[in-house]
Amino acid sequence: MRAVLTNVFTKTLRDQRRALVGWSVGLVVLVLLESALWPTVRDMGNLAEFVAGYPEPMKELFKLDQFGTGTGFLNGELYSLMLPILFLVYGIGRGARSVAGEEEAGTLEVLLMTRVSPTSLVLHRAAALATGVVALGVVLFLAVAVCSPLFDLDVPPGQAAAGSVAMVLLGLEFGWLALAVGAVTGRHVVANAVASAAAVAAYVLYAAGGLVTELKGWQGFSPFDQALAAGPLGGGLTWAFLWMPAAAVVFVAAALPVFERRDITIR
Q1: What is the reported pTM?
Q2: pLDDT value of position 164
Q3: CA distance 108 to 122
């Protein structure tokens, strides 16, 4: 038991296991319900006319031109907005509480009085958060891989894997941003607000880039464009994906020296 408590990474995973199971169940149910709609949508006689009624920028943003395929259907229904929101909520929520939440609860100083260094604590919490997000990504991949043959979605395993990687990297980038802000400020509300505002701004830039010509050149700087522009189902693993973990590492690395110098006191 003592080994669990002295290893921050293991203890964090142990503490979040029930929440992770709940999120996993919800994710599976969501994929199952959306997948079950596909046969009905596929057999709509006026599907082409229905899709043609949307403005061109919206078709491009939500990949509606591919809506007549199982891959395009899941992209439009899940991967363009709903799944990114879920992974962002999990990542940002967990990241904001990882360090700042414990500091506000008055338990962080007690933990730092052991042999755990400030740098080690932040890195262990970042690793635990990444593990949780990756676990959800694996659950998403398995859910899509199982539902694809059940409902004739015809989504190859490679495409399902690429879609899961895109969601994981989105959750990781903004989750580690929230963790970094929490470590610097000691306020989980501030961490939540900053990371959430950054996510909204990034999505607005991604969406506006498809509508406003002047913003088109800036669209590639948005993590949403990096994650979603190629599909993400059907687009494969693209080089743009690398920007998201790179930014996440920069956030945590920038927070480490500041957290080392902070005076952590019980409130």
Answers
A1: 0.89
A2: 96
A3: 11
